[in-house]
Amino acid sequence: MVAEDIILRPIITEKSSFAMSEGKYTFEVSKKATKVDVRNAVEKLFNVKVVNVSTINVKGKPKRQGATSGKTSDWKKAIVTIDTNPQAVKYIEKGGKEKTVNRKYETSIKDFGA
Question: What is the structure's pLDDT at 112?
Fold first, then answer.
């Protein structure tokens, strides 16, 4: 799946706005998307490091208009936790030299809700 087809729209509520300060962002995602798909799509679209992904299948609510009854569509929600303090990664190269690599990740999603 293409990243643009996985992330459908951001969900902006009072609860999700408070969670943004902790680095948690809420999205409506494709019903067929897995946690790995959501992680890869968010990392690709927003250039952030994803720490955790939680998904919830939301059932549609029953609705009624006059004598006709039905329900709203089922949909899937993903709560994505990003790394708000990316650290430099240190590892040892061949020959025993220690190398430090600075990761170029954003610490927040700037255009969230735009």
Answer: 66
